[in-house]
Write the C-alpha cells for this entry.
Amino acid sequence: SSTYCSSSRPSLTGTYTSLGLQQEREKTYILVDSREISSGLEVISSLRAVQGLQVEVCPLNGCDYIVSNRMVVERKSQSEMLNSISKNKLIEQIQHLQSMFERICVIVEKDREKTGDTSRIFRRTKTYDSLLTSLTGAGIRILFSSCQEETAELLKELSLLEQRKHVGIHVPTAVKSSQCEALQFYLSIPNISYITALNMCHQFSSVRKMVNSSPQEISMCAQVTHQKAEEIYTYIHYVFDTQMLPSDMKQETKI
Amino acid sequence: MEGNAPEGTGAVHVPFGYVVASEKWRGSQLAQEIQGKIKLVFEDGVAPVDFYLSNRAGILYITEADLVAGNSYRKRLVRVRNSSNLKGIVIVEKTPMSEQYFPAIQKFTVLDLGMVLLPVASQLEASCLIVQLVQEQAKEPSKNPFLRKKRTLLSEPYLLRTVQQIPGVGKVKASLLLQKFPTLQQLGNASIPELEPVVGQAVAQQIHAFFTQAR
C-alpha cells in the first residue's frame, strides 16, 4: 500500500506519535453531512455502534462523508448510477468534490427492497458501465455495498486506512463560538473543504496569523497538498478590482 | 507449472485498438462477445493477466468458481500488483452463489492492494464492460468528465463574500474595505486607525478583534 503514501504532503504525525495506538484509534473521526440523517440513518447509527469511531454530523454542503484530511466519500444508490437522467447531476457533483478533495471514493449501494416489492431486477445499462470506467480512468475509487450497514463498515475501513497513512482527522470537530466566526471565514475561501477549514481554525492561533502565512505554513497547518496551499495563498494575496465584479454585483455594492 | 512461469507481466505488446487475451479464453462466451466488437488476439503465457487492454493495463478475471473455491486468486492479484509497470483491473463474477465472498475480495483488492474492482453478474456483462474499458482507454483524457481541466474562477465575487464573514461587515462595508485594502492580507494587517475612516470606530474594532483574537 506504499504507493498511496503521498510524498509531497507534510505531516503532523510527530505530534501524535506520543499517543498510544489504541488512543489514536479512539480519536478516529468521521464527518457526516447533516443531509445523511434523512437518507442514511442506518449508516450513521452503524458507524456509531462501531467502537472507537467518533461520528460528527456537520453541515458539509454536499459532501456525504469526510473520512480523512484529504478524502471524501460519496454514497450513491445503484439506481442513480443506472439512470442516464441522473448522470449529469452526478458528474457535476463529483467535479465539485474534485475541486476540494485530493481523493474521492464512491460507494455504490444497492437500493433497499421495499416490503411487497417483487425483487427489483438489476439491469445493467451502458450509462452504468460508462460511469464506472470514467471514474476508474480518473483514479476515483469505487466500492460496492449491499446495504447501509455494509456501507458503514466500508467507511470505517477507509478511515482506518487513511489513519494508517497519517492523514486521519485529529482536530476536535466541535468549535467554540469565537472559532465559529473564523470557521465561516475560512469556509468562504473557494474550493476549500470543511475539514481543511476546521484544521485552519485549530492550527492557526489567529486569522491574522493565517493571512500572513507562507504556502509551506498553510500546507502544514491546513493539512493540504502544496498545490492547494499555493491556491489558498494566491487567494489571500489576490488584488481586488471592483471593475472585475459581475455588473449586477457592482450595482449592489455601489454607494 | 504456473509457479515456474517467467514474470511475464508488462512484457506483452498490444497493438492499438486490440485486446490481447490469454489462450485459455479461446472459444469462451466472453471472448466471443468481445470479438463481435473489438479485435482480439490470443497469446500463450500472458498469465497471470487474462486480458491486456494496453501494454500497461490488464484485466484479471475472477470467476464465480475461483471465488467460491477459496483465496487462491489472491496470489495472482499480488503478482500483478507487484509489477511496477502494469495497472491491474479486477473483474469478478458476483452471482447469488458467490455474493457472500464478495466483501472479502473487495476489501483485499481495493483497500489492501489499492487495485480497481468491478463486479459483473455474467460473462455477457463482463464483455460489455471490457469493451467500455477499451473505449475509455482509447479516447482522449479530456473526454473524461472527471479529468477535464478546471475553469479558473474570478476571485472578486468570492473575496466580497469572504470579507462579509467578518462580524459587523455586510455587502456595502465589504466593498468599501476591499477598495481601501485590496487583498485579504492587507485587510488582516490593518490597524484600528487605518480601518476607522472606512467603517467607523465600532466596526473597526470588531474587524481588528476578529483578525487578532487568539482562538
Notes: The beta strands of chain B are 18-22, 39-43, 51-52, 57-62, 87-93, 116-120. Chain B has ten helices and six strands. Chain B touches chain A through 67 residues (CB under 8 Å).
